[in-house]
């Protein structure tokens, strides 16, 4: 009896309380349906617009950054006072090197970058596949241009054809030359891909401020179109980007940017939103235009082509609202994109309000019949389990973040016999393989790069952040493999790794780049003298004979090239290229680790 009484005392009042709670929640959810619809619609629109803005800024930034590789901006000196001009390369070889670097840093298939000189000289590089390029060259004067196929820089090119091409008559050249600043060309259809594109062009001047040519980077609109079409929205919704005058740039519903000329000519003209086939797009565009006319100063200028590391773009004011239309109430979000080169785009997302209300109406009943039951059961039965389990999952999450950011990996200290314990053990083993070279147990290339980037980002005084990198290549390693076999070659690599670690300071890092090549990272080393001293120490250590399994002594030797940050480059890829180039110069011609340039080879 007592047990039954206690059950009645606790269960019946609790059941009645739950029933009242369910009725109250249902009534509140129903009354709050309209408010929830507003909040949901604004959240969905803001999230979609955020993704679209990121896609736009990424494309515009890539175009601007590629130009800056070839024709950099001025940079401030060490005192951050007087801007120091970065000279534009005067000879064709150095110019082509910069253009190849730009193509490598921004490897979009179809990406084109070119330079047209005022004297008629032209160099153009277009990536047509992952490892294939089309190179167009034209000498000074009015001679025809020559088209070549190439597999990459410093590779023999295959001649394809001769064509008549006058770069100085192109719209991108004329716009940049006349405006004397970065300028966008009108939109056109790129012949090879049949995709809409436009060109960002930058005029280049000599020390006397006379124009010497124009650098241009092509921006394909295909990635923007594909991103819009991949957005998760109802079939009634639409997302599009248009120019300020209403000409379409890209759309999620397949509307073409160019349409046949209504005049009957064998030409294509821009598709304008004022006369577009989709009534939903016309209506939403009219609503956005009306809003912008009433609030002409509400949207600030953004400049996404400025490098993010120097001046991050500030997004324009997000316009979100509900407007009545012939299709019912429409939820619209819009944002204006402007840059200093003259681009002015408006991104728009429009969704019928009925789409959101249907989701809210359905969620009311789901919350009543399923949500409360699941939540109560989860709270009663799972609170303790989740608290215990999530503690260790949190550790794994922080460990994953540390790997992605390059932060040194701390021990997990998870001692469990269940699946989470197995996952922790597997994760630690995976982390070791990801960060280290399996043969030498040194850091691998990607792990070293991540750690350097992490230190650069988290340094308390980034303006004083300095380091040096050394590129070490063994001179006689191939002979060891050929004479003693690969097993002995592996032993030599392990010994070299140990000698490098023992020769360096505690704060230094060494990584195996691949094969018989190693990278040494020297934090705080800011001058060539210090780096040379460490290089000489490494050279002496690696020149000591190594005892082989058969009792022989083998002297390996090494060639070392170095680079300093930021004197030789502002990113690690550039520094490694400089150090690698200097290493090959040392190997081939002798000299010092920091020899500026190798001797010119006879042509």
Structural class: alpha+beta
The total count of helices amounts to 13
Cα-atom radius of gyration: 32 Å
What is the percent of helical residues?
40-55%
Arithmetic mean of pLDDT: 77
Shape: flat
Instruction: Give the biggest beta sheet.
Output: 9 strands, antiparallel
Low-confidence stretches: 1-11, 299-315, 598-603
Strand content: 15-25%
> What is the terminal-to-terminal distance?
107 Å
Describe, in plain words, how this protein is organized in 3D.
With 603 residues, this protein is of the alpha+beta class. Helix content is 43%, strand content 23%. The protein has 13 helices and 25 strands. The chain has helices at residues 2-31, 33-70, 92-105, 171-179, 222-229, 279-294, 353-405, 419-435, 445-458, 477-484, 486-503, 528-542, 572-589, and strands at 75-76, 83-84, 112-117, 122-129, 132-138, 145-150, 158-163, 183-184, 188-190, 195-205, 211-220, 238-243, 248-251, 258-260, 268-270, 319-323, 330-338, 344-352, 443-444, 467-474, 509-514, 517-523, 546-547, 553-554, 558-565. Strands 3, 4, 5, 6, 7, 8, 9, 10 and 11 form a nine-stranded antiparallel sheet that branches. Strands 13-12-18-17-16 form a five-stranded antiparallel sheet, sandwiched between helices. β16 (319-323) and β17 (330-338) form a beta hairpin. The chain is flat. The termini are far apart. The relative contact order is 0.07. The model is unreliable at 1-11, 299-315 and 598-603 (pLDDT under 50).
